[in-house]
Amino acid sequence: MPVENGDTAGQRGQQVNGEVSGTPRLRGMGDPLLRGTTAPDSSRTEVTAAGWESGPALGDEDGTPGRAPQRAGQQEEALMTELSELVQKVVKSSSWWERHGVDISILACSFLLLPAGFLCLRSAQTIPFLVGVLTLGVVHHTLTVKGSHLASHNALTESKTWGKVWAIFFIELCSAFTVEQATYNHVKIHHGYTNVIGLGDSSTWKLPFLNRYVYMFIAPLAVPILTPLVALDLLRNVEWKAALRTLCCMFLGFYCHYWLLLHVSGFQSPWSALLCMLLTRSLLAHPYIHVNIFQHIGLPMFAADRKPKRIHLMSLGVLNLPRNALLDWSFGHSLISCHVEHHLFPSLSDNMCLKIKPIVSQYLKQKKLPYNEDSYGSRLRLFLQRYEELMVHAPPITELVGIQ
Predict the structure, then answer these.
(1) Which one of the record's GO molecular function terms can you name (predicted)?
(2) Euclidean distance between the first and final Cα of the chain, in Å?
(3) 217 strand-pairing partners
């Protein structure tokens, strides 16, 4: 992973009713660094826009203004390098089971649950039928969210060839999306420009023409329908061979699901089978949408030409949710409780993100850098209360003066 920046941070703002007060300044320059930045939520969330202070470099006491940004950049690089070295030691000392085996086993267990899920749907009794729906719904999201996410970052294997195979399987066959566009939009744009307006600001999740209750509680049910439609539209941007491969994988994935419902689960009509497909594929669509907006929107946003470097960008613009057994299994730790760790080290598996979490959190807090955490319920209330501000209007740009 490229090492970009670092800095020794000093937090000068105080959070009062969800807002940051105080005027942080960069030592030796006298310019405000962050102004009017709003913290994501209540007291459970740490202040997301802290002041970063850097003193004169050793042996450099002339206080030349032109050299201050350079010194700050060097200190930022040193911070990221130091954190990367700490994490790399943990990775090198970890076994294959810890690096890849745990997550591969979760995906394998999900496959093994598929027959039980389809067979439960044969029952005319309510409880076994609902168990089948729940099983297939959890398995579907484990394969399409956790599997696709890990595959897009090549975190399932250290082999590039097998990484490509798994990406096609999980992203195209299971998720009905194209690998090239999924990888570009998520890895290159979202991770490369996290919370940068117009690039990685999560604006693709916004539907400003919907009101808050429709968006938060009804619209997610349409995710299984909208996903392949969006994928088909994006096929115009890929080579014809990749488009043909994607179409074949999408059709095979849908048809296998449909065929199993008819011939294994015993559905009598095509419409009942399609309705069951929609039900299972949208079972966890609500938390899927919520997680994607909770962890970035409402945090500081930046202009492309005035964004902080990596360690500050990720610590400011990413938030962790608490651990949750169902979502940890279906979505993975890197999307729930270790999202900060994932954005700092995106090539690591879910289990490794969980393993390095104490190191990353302790390091950021020790250096007085933000480490944002909040509960699912708290974020849900925030978005319902401030939906117009966060999801309809353009988010304000966090002003960075002195770090260019």
Answers:
(1) oxidoreductase activity, acting on paired donors, with oxidation of a pair of donors resulting in the reduction of molecular oxygen to two molecules of water
(2) 22
(3) none
Tokens of 267: 């559905």
CA distance 378 to 204: 23
What tokens were used for 376?
Answer: 């699912």
Cβ-contact 267, 276 below 8 angstroms: yes
8 A C-beta contact, residue 41 and residue 382 = yes
Q: What length is written for the chain?
A: 404
Q: How many helices (H) and strands (E) does the chain have?
A: 18, 4
φ, ψ for residue 331, nearest 5 deg: -105, -30
Distance CA 404, CA 399 (A): 11
Q: pLDDT averaged over the chain?
A: 84
- CA nearest neighbour of 121 among 251, 113, 341: 113
- Residues of the chain below pLDDT 70: 1-73, 399-404
Positions of E strands within 293-374: 319-320, 372-373
The region that residue 192 occupies, defined by phi over 0 for left and psi between -120 and 50 for alpha, beta otherwise, is alpha
Beta bridge mates, 397: 301
Residue keyed to tokens 């900060």: 340
Q: Would you list the domain boundaries of the chain?
A: 95-392
Q: What is the pLDDT of residues 114-149, one digit of tens each?
A: 999 999 999 999 999 999 999 999 999 999 999 999
pLDDT of residue 76: 78
Q: Which helix (H) or strand (E) holds 228?
A: helix 223-234
Q: How far apart are CA 381 and CA 234, in angstroms?
A: 34
CA 304/CA 53 separation, integer angstroms: 22
256 Cβ contact partners less than 8 Å away, ≥ 6 residues apart? none
Q: What is the C-alpha to C-alpha distance for residues 301 and 284, in angstroms, rounded to an integer?
A: 28
What is the SS3 assignment for 25?
strand
